[in-house]
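<instruction>
Derive structure tokens from the sequence
<entry> Chain with its tokenised backbone below:
===
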Amino acid sequence: LAQLHAIIGECHLCDLSKSRRQSMSGLGNPDAELMIVDAYVSVNEDASNSYYVGRSGESLVKMIENVLGLKKEDVYITHAVKCKPLGTNTPSLSEFTSCKPYLYKQLEAVRPRVVMTLGPDAYRLLSGDDTPFEQVRGHQINFGDYTIVPIFHPQFLLRNPSLKSETLSDLKTIKSCL
């Protein structure tokens, strides 16, 4: 995993490498039972070179600690696209395609029991499944040797607090899988 992180840090396979401050390869327990996959690096994460930043990051930590009963150090968190997109753009499919082997190698190295994807973009990028997010959110989806459980992104929940009870149910599903 450390070797993979070094390779990601030196990656120049797409144009995002020209504008990034750094790549963010992943953080956490290399033997985690839970891997969290976000779609791409946020402006705040890129600026601070840190995960769990801002209100969204604080919300995610509360989900991990208060509902799942884990410490953030117990999980492994990464992004499908390892660099911040240009401006406020969503990464292109070709930019993700450059990162895809890295994400799959992280899965192989960590071998989590459950992969929690944050929002529809992270789910689609990881799984390649175009099923509407409302139909997969909170469900256990077999993906090779792993179980994916997509949930709403914490940033989305900050803008839509009425959906927190649904997310609580989704987190309970994840907890039952661990």
User: Anything to note?
Assistant: The first strand starts at residue 27 and ends at 28. The two ends are 22 Å apart (CA to CA).
